[in-house]
Amino acid sequence: MAKPRPSYRCTACGHRSPKWVGRCPDCGEWGTVDEAPAAASSGRPGAATVAPASPAKRITEVDATAADALPTGISELDRVLGTGVVPGSVVLLAGEPGVGKSTLLLETVKRWAEKGRRALYVTGEESAAQVRLRAERTGAVHSEVFLAAETDLDTVLAHAEQVAPTLMIVDSVQTMIAGGADGVNGGVTQIRTVTTALTSLAKNTGISVVLVGHVTKEGAVAGPRTLEHMVDVVLAFEGDKHSALRMVRGIKNRFGASDEVGCFEQRGDGIHEVPDPTGLFLHHRDDDVPGTAITVTMDGRRPLVAEVQALVTPTQMASPRRAVSGLDSPRVAMILAVLEGRIAVKVSDVEVYVATVGGMKITEPAADLAIALAIGSIRRMKALPRSTVAIGEVGLAGEVRRVGAIGRRVAEAKRLGFRHAIVPAGSGDLPSGIRITQVADLHEAVRAALVTSVDAYSF
């Protein structure tokens, strides 16, 4: 039998190569390519089989109550998880440094312990005393919360066996070290081995495990892509350093919807959930101001009311400036072209500034109509009523197109006290109790929002 040819593997990213190289062609690391042991063959015809530890059951005989979710006590987090944490599940929470991941999880274990359940918080980035100080500052101290400052995987598993918690936090998975695995700390091989061991622990003991993950400079979860496949739930913790708003966004969820969003606010005494974040995205004023329009955007399955503001100023420059904040710049440029080309709103000789309020970011096209009306409002110096919302996508022909979840958007506007909604024509059945104006194009939208008489329609 011919001797198998050797292969080489990068200990940092796991890339395999038929020959040795000094630098890994995949991750670019130097000196990480070593000879890999030959893989043992399995599944050969005639090979001996292994008896299963327990026989397979009919699906009708499986007890589904063992997977009933347990609420964490934080309603916004439970909203994203589905109804709570499922026993034996593995949750990956990823976010940028300093966004508040550890603060949120400290509050979570405290709420968990208040319900008479034991929690274990394993930190590999701080000492136990440092975690205790932060817990005292945020009011997250409880006698049923256990702390362990460890980075060795075997020691962490021993702590879990000794404490016997129902919820275990590992902060973070990149700092854990598996003694029997190759690779550098935080490398692909190490992360895969650690995650596999902790997943096995969760499935065999019923302990719910939450892994804290780092993100790369591109915003992706650090480590192998298989990490997201191995866990049951992947959550992204997002936030702008210039804003107190924090959002937990579901990316993957085997137990519920994967597009839910939970809102939080970072304060000096910790992180607090925000059940109704509308006030953060609306500017409260007594009088109507030209250049503002209200819309309802969907962030996952959650409708959020947002305010769009526009300002135009004369300029002598051949190429007037266009500054956009919180919106998609190419889409705003397209709307400016549609305004000038379809309804003669002249914007080619002025500087245009368009922004959202409260640091909100809007990428969906349902805000097109609000952007167009805000720019038209400031050009005509006529304010839109504060009780009006505008929802719809604007096409290049000047038409107003339908958008998804229009009923939920209008219902949210009605709940918050808005009395008039401008929506695309053909939107179907909408909630009652709020005046609905269905428009087919920008001409009708401008008349409905800005003009009291059709004869006065001019810019």
TrEMBL record:
Superkingdom of this protein's organism: Bacteria
Motif (RadA KNRFG motif): 252-256
Keyword Heme: no
Alphabetized Pfam families for the sequence: AAA_25, ChlI, Zn_ribbon_LapB
Domain RecA family profile: 66-215
Keyword match Zinc: yes
Region feature Lon-protease-like, mapped onto this chain: 351-459
Swiss-Prot/TrEMBL keywords: ATP-binding, DNA damage, DNA repair, DNA-binding, Hydrolase, Metal-binding, Nucleotide-binding, Stress response, Zinc, Zinc-finger
Cross-referenced SMART domains: AAA
Residues the entry annotates as binding ATP: G95, E96, P97, G98, V99, G100, K101, S102
Family: Belongs to the RecA family. RadA subfamily.
Entry-linked PANTHER family: DNA REPAIR PROTEIN RADA, DNA REPAIR PROTEIN RADA-LIKE PROTEIN
HAMAP family linked to this entry: RadA_bact
Role, per record: DNA-dependent ATPase involved in processing of recombination intermediates, plays a role in repairing DNA breaks. Stimulates the branch migration of RecA-mediated strand transfer reactions, allowing the 3' invading strand to extend heteroduplex DNA faster. Binds ssDNA in the presence of ADP but not other nucleotides, has ATPase activity that is stimulated by ssDNA and various branched DNA structures, but inhibited by SSB. Does not have RecA's homology-searching function. Plays a role in repairing double-strand DNA breaks, probably involving stabilizing or processing branched DNA or blocked replication forks.
Family matches, as NCBIfam families: sms
Free-text comment about domains: The middle region has homology to RecA with ATPase motifs including the RadA KNRFG motif, while the C-terminus is homologous to Lon protease.
Protein name as catalogued: DNA repair protein RadA
Species annotation: Williamsia serinedens
Gene this protein is translated from: radA
